[in-house]
Amino acid sequence: MTSDRVGDMITRLRNANLVKTKYVLIPKTKLTLEMARILVQEGFIENFEEIKPLPLYIRIGLKYKEKKHITKLIRISKPGLRVYVNRNEIPRVLGGIGIAILSTSQGIMTDREARVQKIGGEVLCYVW
């Protein structure tokens, strides 16, 4: 187990993407569930589900050969150096092609949702 859940999730997704596996197991927390929900909503992964015999994990289905799939995941805010932005400094990833996942006072959301709601927060990662 690791204390950095977001870093662990990003590393597992990146490694699974490199070897082209269909599914990857990720430890289940509220944060990883919300990040998986955003990745499904934005079309970067196929689906995610809680595994019944192992309730501490979620299984994420990756997709390949699609128009929109994960090509790169970059961790921005780390336990040793948190990166916060206000509503005017929310980054655009590759001119809007990718997404930034933010942790805000209203919950976990994408950069577009944060701009619409006019709130800033901690930048967790970039995905494209």
TrEMBL record:
Gene Ontology process terms (BP): translation
Record InterPro entries: Ribosomal_uS8, Ribosomal_uS8_CS, Ribosomal_uS8_sf
Any one GO MF annotation of this record: rRNA binding
GO CC terms: chloroplast; ribonucleoprotein complex; ribosome
UniProt-listed Pfam families: Ribosomal_S8
The entry's keywords: Chloroplast, Plastid, Ribonucleoprotein, Ribosomal protein, RNA-binding, rRNA-binding
Keyword Zinc listed: no
Signal peptide limits: none
Function: One of the primary rRNA binding proteins, it binds directly to 16S rRNA central domain where it helps coordinate assembly of the platform of the 30S subunit.
Assembly and binders: Part of the 30S ribosomal subunit.
UniProt name for this protein: Small ribosomal subunit protein uS8c
